[in-house]
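Notes on consecutive records. When two proteins share a document, each keeps its own sequence and its own token line. Never mix them. Below: protein one.
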Amino acid sequence: MSSSPTPPAPAPHMSTIIRIYSHSSLFYWWPVWALGFLLTLISLIDNTRALHVPADAQVKAIEGSTDYRLSSPNSGPEMDNVLDKYRDDKKKEDRKRPPRISHRNWMGAVFCSVLLIVIIITNVPLRGLWSVITIISIVLLAVILRLADLWDDIFYAIGVLHIFVGMAGYLFISTVLFIMWLVTMFVFDRQIYITFQAGQMKVCDEVGGGEKAYDTMGMSIEKHRDDLFRHWVLGLGSGDLTVRTSGATTHEIKLPNVLFIGKKLKQIEDLQREKQVVQ
């Protein structure tokens, strides 16, 4: 009784290419433009506007009417007609209307807080032990403030902190930042990369530079994801990649801010197990 021959194992895909891009720190600024667009929408829905008036101006209701009058003792009777000039009349041009600013005073404080936090996280990297120490310090500070019953005072101080930003301000900052983010992410960052193939690695470590080829035999790859705030909170699971080549002259290539680094590293490890088969 003869058995059928065992079919040969399929050859590895010769066209398998894994390309990893390095991103600039501008990638971590997505919460700023996302929050800015959200606050722009809230300002548009609120549809409240602001007037610039003297410090002694007073708003008084007109008896028997839903209209108001604005008067200023030191500015003369012409202040009575200020509101009339800014009536929501569709026949008037939009440029004659007051700027659209939401009456919610928490919006400006939250936007400024997020902006400052992103600036600190992207410019002061906290790795390893420093990241743990920072988290423990924040937790301890929160507990101390709770035991001292100071949170109510802090929230009240933030509530009365009148930081008002117009809808145009939110929209302008968010739009410009979003365009810069898109151009950087999908144009400039695409010029710095590492390409892995079975048995070969190609590196382009600067914008406009050429590719350098290395053999993957004996190559070591390290993943660094020890900055909790930058890699996990803002980077959504990103990390830094370090590749060391072997041979008489070793080279160390660093690729910061790699997205989905865990998935990419697994693909590289699977590719390293493959061998090129010449048919």
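Protein two starts on the next line and is unrelated to protein one.
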Amino acid sequence: VFLYGKVLEQPLGDIGETVRAKRPPRLPVVLSHDEAVAIIRHLQSPYGLMASLMYGAGLRVVECARLPVTMPSALRRKYPNADKSLQWPWLFFIRR
């Protein structure tokens, strides 16, 4: 029906007693609180922390990955280019 009506711009004509398919309502799959907590408990560091933040604060994956980590001023003076390094933000996630 879409092909003839919108693309070919021609009337479809009589197609008999056919019935258009009805789409079932699409329901999202949502975990219960207990299920989500059980999954988060099985994650190792730093993924457990990230999953807890995403679940508790409603963050998206990219938002969680972009959380800023501030560098202490003494360390900034000692290593002037450390804040541009990709290893610095992950320092606190790796250590326990």
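For the record: The chain has a mean pLDDT of 81.
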